[in-house]
């Protein structure tokens, strides 16, 4: 690449000497165009090549944060019993709108990047589709979209209209298609693609996607479809949970760099509890049980920091895996606190929310500081794992 | 070879080691290479030769010489041959290559001839300690160096003692007026953590449905023919007795207080008596085990790493919960709520550790270690939920119920699958399978308490328990031929639990079918407990074998030499070593076995993973 540019420069230089001014400017323009094209080519060949669906963890984390902020605002408005810290009472809704816009912008950027990647490196996209960990992150854009749709402050998409329904279907259809592909593969395809071999903690993303779709359907007003999505999610969650507990080989199935995806264990029951509480209308005993399971898994992971030691050495996009589950857990704890109305539950909800906000903030800071590392460097990923 | 050995023997003559050893060692080497015969003492092995003259010399020196063993192809290591001599180098070999445990008296040991001896033939380890002839081979490191027989007795168990317990013991014995022995430097065994206590080592060395029988080719670190100190013989499964008796107390309490059985007019005295007995038992067993923890920490550690015994570490907490559940009305009407938190907190910590082990994989992942005793880890959740709900708590019981339910599902599916990578499932029926009945029956009772009535969820769980119970009961024929062990007490509490659940169910659905079922199950469980009590007493006082030597904790850290010899040795020894070959292959491939399923898929995944993520 560089040599090419250099050669062009040399050619241009010679031509500058011989020709007159007009030709020179034209060649300079050509030169600039070639440079621009060169930069674009470099961009394509390095950034897009390394950009993978896992980057959507960022949008997932941010969308969940938006949801948390909205819920907190709602919670503080509802409970005026001064059980919460006064600072949180001052949380303005405009802040959540800003966050929503930020999340939307990030999502759109990432989607454009991924679309470009499909354009230029379609073979890599196909590779991802076939990879047992990568395919799960194909759910992520649609999940983020659905979350943002639910929490949109201004009615970007006016409710009750055909427009909204179309948007919703457009978002849910890919989830359904991916579901059919993945789950069908689990129990139909034998030999190399057996669930016992391909199961990994990231597969829980498909289950979470079902639960989010269930919640979104209820938001749209279709309770039967919501129940349908929930049933699919729960059935496959059962299978996946057992499989992961059974033969999760730890270091064999997931590389040490990807250990943060273990935190998805916490996300799935929390999302199940939230979906169920939406469907039944209240945080009943089933939701409580899911929430407690999620708390137990969270404590269990927190007690094992050595599990994540290797992956925390260098900043990578996998670190964003921590934000989403923590946020979901905080949301579920808020639901629980609303139901139980006990002081301890409220303080638990508060502490979890603050923790998730701090984590997301830290991750955002890290990402902005190290945008270079994440997006623009070429060969680092290969050398690390 | 021989010249070097002779020089070696000369060198050893000059050392402070008694000549006994040097003479033997040189002869030993010759015996190795030439396959010469042995003395009359070892003619059992069938080797003829001119060893006799040479052997007689050392025997004049000391009474303690035993026959030298020259291993023969057909003699298994545990044959009837008499004791073999252990010459000086070998324990050093062992410790360097086989058993890393440091013996207290490691004197100068010539290194030169080791290689030759070590790899030539499978040499069963021997002791110098005079014992009954025909006793199985044993290895005991410290003995080789300590010429004094009396002191050997204590030294053998040193490796299992807690480091500072020695000073405690000395003080105690001083207190009691016993003469204090000169303190040898005692180095308790300090295995490197991963090395000695890997789960694979337990599987390789032990067999049997409770993983407590030593495989034939394995050796125990402690002498098998002597009775070990009582504390060393006291396994954690003794807490099973507490479980069995305290669940009986709950049964009789339920019988006395439930409405559908009122016609029997069972007096609450039965509950009081049983409860007092169980309190006494719990206190006694706890004290003894605490003593074991203080004095023999290494043994406790090894029990903790044993894939089956680890589940019994939940048993003390479950027993305490049972005590709280079976508390008679006369003692206290209402137990304080904080008691529940106090009881459940250590339980929570323990289960965080154990379940986390299951989840994060590695060598203790569930697909490998799942066995019916794991039910003990899960049932405690339900018992805690039941106790909390009967105390009136709301959220805490639901928490433990949820956690228990999730992990029970995983365990249930895993056990039903009988995965090929699972090494601990007993191949035939064994009383341990009754533990299957425990979780659903207690879960049904807990759910009924949480919900307030015996609703559908509780009934579903109850019917599952009933089904499992009957499917095991009709196979009663197959529960035969098993050695009695203390752990059997732990298997009685599921039967009692099923009886209690049936009584509660009959309260809800009172008709003659449910009542007769309740009475029948109660009778069965009481009968079983009584017969078990009789058997226990029999073993305790008549056979005096209630606490046999706990082989499961005395496995050596590395497999015996024979399993690790070079493959070409097999060529020399043909037939007998098929077992050794199996052992060798098993040891080598144990790690590979688990990853075989992924082997075909692994490499490309790793590559693409590195590229993409």
Give the topology, please:
The complex is a heterodimer of chains A (385) and B (613).
Chain A: H1 2-18, H2 21-50, H3 56-78, H4 86-89, H5 93-120, H6 122-130, H7 140-150, H8 162-188, H9 195-198, H10 204-220, H11 223-247, H12 264-280, H13 285-302, H14 323-340, H15 343-369, H16 371-376, H17 380-384
Chain B: H1 2-14, H2 19-34, H3 51-61, H4 89-98, H5 114-120, H6 141-145, H7 149-155, H8 165-176, H9 193-196, H10 199-205, E1 206-207, E2 213-214, H11 230-233, H12 239-257, H13 269-295, H14 297-305, H15 315-325, H16 337-360, H17 366-369, H18 375-391, H19 395-417, H20 435-451, H21 456-473, H22 493-508, H23 512-542, H24 561-564, H25 568-573, H26 578-599, H27 602-612
Antiparallel strand pairs in B: 1-2
Helix pairs in contact in B: 1-2, 2-3, 12-13, 12-15, 12-22, 12-23, 13-14, 13-15, 15-18, 16-18, 18-19, 18-20, 19-20, 20-21, 20-22, 21-22, 22-23
Structural overview:
The complex is a heterodimer of chains A (385) and B (613). Chain A is globular and about 75 Å long. Chain A folds into two domains: 1-50; 52-384, Glycosyltransferase, CATH 1.50.10. With 385 residues, chain A is an all-alpha fold. Chain A is 74% helix and 0% strand. In chain A, helix 3 (56-78) runs parallel beside helix 7, helix 5 (93-120) runs antiparallel to helix 7 (140-150) and helix 10 (204-220) runs antiparallel to helix 11 (223-247). Chain B has 613 residues and is mainly α. Helices cover 58% and strands 1% of the residues of chain B. In chain B, strands 1-2 form a two-stranded antiparallel ribbon. In chain B, a hairpin with a 5-residue loop joins strand 1 (206-207) and strand 2 (213-214). The radius of gyration of chain B is 28 Å and the shape is globular. The N and C termini of chain B lie far apart (58 Å). Classes of the chains: A mainly alpha (385), B mainly alpha (613). At the A-B interface, helix 6, helix 11, helix 13 and helix 17 of A face helix 16, helix 19, helix 26 and helix 27 of B.
């Amino acid at each position: 690449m560089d040599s090419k540019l250099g050669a062009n420069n040399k050619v241009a230089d010679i031509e500058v000497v011989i020709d007159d001014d007009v030709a020179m400017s034209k060649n300079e323009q050509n030169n600039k165009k070639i440079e621009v094209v060169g930069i674009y080519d470099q961009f394509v060949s390095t950034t897009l090549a390394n950009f993978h669906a896992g980057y959507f963890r960022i949008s997932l984390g941010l969308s969940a944060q938006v949801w948390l902020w909205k819920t907190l605002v709602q919670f503080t408005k509802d409970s005026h019993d001064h059980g919460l810290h006064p600072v949180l009472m001052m949380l303005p809704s405009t802040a959540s709108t800003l966050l929503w816009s930020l999340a939307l912008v990030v999502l759109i950027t990432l989607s454009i990047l991924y679309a470009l990647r499909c354009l230029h490196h379609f073979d890599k996209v196909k590779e991802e589709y076939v990879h047992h960990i990568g395919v799960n992150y194909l759910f992520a854009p649609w999940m983020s979209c659905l979350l943002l749709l639910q929490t949109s402050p201004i009615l970007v998409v006016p409710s009750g209209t055909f427009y909204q329904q179309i948007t919703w279907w457009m978002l849910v259809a890919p989830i359904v298609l991916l579901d059919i592909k993945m789950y069908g593969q689990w129990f139909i395809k034998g030999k190399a693609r057996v669930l016992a071999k391909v199961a990994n903690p990231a597969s829980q993303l498909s289950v979470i996607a079902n639960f989010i779709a269930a919640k979104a359907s209820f938001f749209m007003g279709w309770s039967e479809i919501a129940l349908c999505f929930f049933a699919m999610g729960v059935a496959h969650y059962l299978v996946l949970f057992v499989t992961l507990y059974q033969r999760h080989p730890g270091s064999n199935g997931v590389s040490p760099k990807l250990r943060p995806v273990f935190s998805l264990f916490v996300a799935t029951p929390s999302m199940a509890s939230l979906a169920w509480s939406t469907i039944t209308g209240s945080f009943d005993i089933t939701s409580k049980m899911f929430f407690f399971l999620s708390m137990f898994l969270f404590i269990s992971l927190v007690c094992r920091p050595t599990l994540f030691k290797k992956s925390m050495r260098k900043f990578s996009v996998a670190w964003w895996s921590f934000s989403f589950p923590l946020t979901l857990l905080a949301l579920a704890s808020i639901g629980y606190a609303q139901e139980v109305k006990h002081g301890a539950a409220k303080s638990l909800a508060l502490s979890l929310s603050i923790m998730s906000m701090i984590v997301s903030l830290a991750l955002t800071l890290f990402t902005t500081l190290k945008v270079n590392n994440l997006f623009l460097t070429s060969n680092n990923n290969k050398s690390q794992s | 070879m021989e010249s070097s050995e002779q020089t070696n023997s000369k060198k050893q003559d000059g050392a402070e080691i008694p000549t006994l050893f040097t003479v033997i060692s040189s002869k030993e080497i010759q015996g190795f290479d030439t396959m010469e015969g042995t003395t009359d003492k070892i003619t059992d092995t069938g080797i003829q030769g001119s060893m006799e003259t040479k052997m007689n010399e050392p025997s004049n020196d000391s009474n303690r010489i035993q026959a030298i063993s020259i291993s023969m192809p057909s003699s298994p290591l545990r044959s009837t041959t008499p004791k073999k001599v252990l010459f000086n180098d070998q324990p050093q070999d062992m410790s360097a290559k086989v058993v890393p445990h440091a013996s207290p008296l490691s004197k100068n040991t010539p290194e030169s001839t080791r290689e030759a001896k070590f790899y030539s033939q499978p040499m069963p380890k021997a002791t110098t300690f005079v014992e009954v002839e025909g006793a199985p081979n044993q290895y005991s490191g410290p003995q080789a160096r300590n010429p004094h027989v009396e002191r050997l007795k204590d030294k053998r168990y040193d490796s299992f003692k807690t480091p500072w317990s020695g000073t405690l013991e000395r003080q105690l014995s001083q207190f009691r007026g016993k003469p204090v022995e000169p303190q040898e430097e005692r180095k308790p065994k300090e295995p490197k953590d991963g090395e000695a206590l890997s789960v694979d080592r337990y599987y390789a060395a032990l067999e049997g449905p409770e993983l407590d029988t030593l495989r034939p080719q394995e050796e125990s670190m402690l002498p098998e023919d002597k009775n070990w100190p009582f504390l060393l013989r006291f396994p954690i499964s003794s807490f099973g007795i507490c479980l069995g008796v305290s669940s009986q107390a709950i049964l009789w309490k339920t019988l006395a207080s439930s409405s559908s059985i009122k016609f029997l007019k069972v007096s609450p005295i039965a509950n009081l008596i049983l409860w007092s007995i169980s309190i006494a038992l719990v206190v006694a067993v706890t004290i003894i085990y605490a003593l074991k923890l203080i004095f023999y920490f290494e043994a406790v550690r090894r029990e903790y790493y044993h894939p089956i015994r680890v589940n019994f570490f939940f048993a003390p907490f479950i027993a305490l919960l049972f005590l709280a559940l079976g508390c008679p009305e006369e003692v206290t009407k209402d137990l304080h709520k904080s008691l529940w938190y106090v009881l459940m907190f250590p339980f929570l910590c323990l289960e965080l550790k154990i379940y986390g082990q299951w989840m994060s994989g590695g060598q203790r992942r569930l697909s490998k270690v799942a066995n019916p005793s794991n039910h003990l880890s899960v049932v405690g959740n339900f018992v805690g939920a039941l106790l909390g709900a009967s105390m009136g708590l709301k959220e805490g019981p639901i928490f433990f119920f949820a956690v228990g339910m999730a992990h029970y599902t995983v365990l249930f599916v895993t056990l039903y699958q009988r995965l090929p990578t699972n090494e601990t499932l007993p191949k035939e029926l064994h009383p341990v399978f009754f533990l299957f009945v425990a979780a659903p029956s207690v879960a049904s009772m807990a759910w009924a308490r949480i919900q307030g009535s015996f609703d559908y969820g509780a009934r579903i769980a109850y019917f599952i328990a009933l089904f499992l119970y009957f499917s095991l009961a009709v196979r009663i024929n197959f529960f035969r031929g098993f050695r009695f062990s203390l752990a059997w007490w732990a298997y009685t509490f599921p039967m009692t639990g099923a009886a209690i659940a049936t009584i509660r169910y009959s309260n809800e659905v009172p008709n003659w079918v449910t009542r007769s079922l309740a009475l029948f199950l109660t009778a069965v469980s009481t009968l079983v407990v009584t017969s078990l009590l009789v058997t226990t007493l029999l073993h305790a006082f008549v056979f005096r074998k209630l606490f046999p030597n706990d082989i499961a904790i005395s496995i050596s850290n590395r497999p015996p030499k024979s399993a690790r010899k070079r493959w070409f040795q097999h060529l020399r020894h043909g037939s007998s070593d098929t077992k050794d070959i199996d052992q060798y292959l098993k040891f080598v491939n144990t790690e590979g076995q688990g990853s075989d399923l992924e082997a075909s898929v692994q490499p490309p995944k790793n590559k693409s993973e590195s590229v993409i993520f």
